[in-house]
Amino acid sequence: MNVTYEKKDAMTFIGYHTEIRPEEGYQKCPEFWDKEYAAKYARLWQTMKPENAVEKAILENGIGMFAICADSENAFTYWIAGLYKGGEVPEGLELYSFPASEWAVFTTKGPMPASLQTLNTAVWQEWFPNEGQKYHANGNATLEVYSAGNPQSPDYECGIWVPISGGSDEYDDADEYEAAEIITTMMVTGIL
Fold it and tell me: How many domains does the chain contain in total?
């Protein structure tokens, strides 16, 4: 598992989402991608000519280059997203923002979704209980990052970014609770 720590400015994403029950994360996230690919991307990738406002936003904002996993009550909200470059937010799409933050940036290579799911498990079962305990969450969501290219290639690169802040000397009870809540959600969702 490769991890670096990077400071990033505030980021706003545009995309669409679904609610996924915690225990179904590793099954339902890829199913959501498959469904949305068939509905929104298959024809668009062949022609690269948008026929509606959503398709235009997909191309202009790179929707599909990121996914957001955000805590929600009794589930998590899973977004297929792109970095928002401004302009119209068509019906059916929404915005999601992350504040400026330090990030733990994890990368891996391999065919999707197995490589990302293996990385995700390692982040929360290996990094967080050890080195990750020095940090606390900055928000209630994480980011999946995808590269261009064939997602079934053994050389395909993807990653998980976890917004963090501070070290263990900065903890207070509320911060520790928030970090524990995120880990609990990840475990309950089946992501861990």
Answer: 1
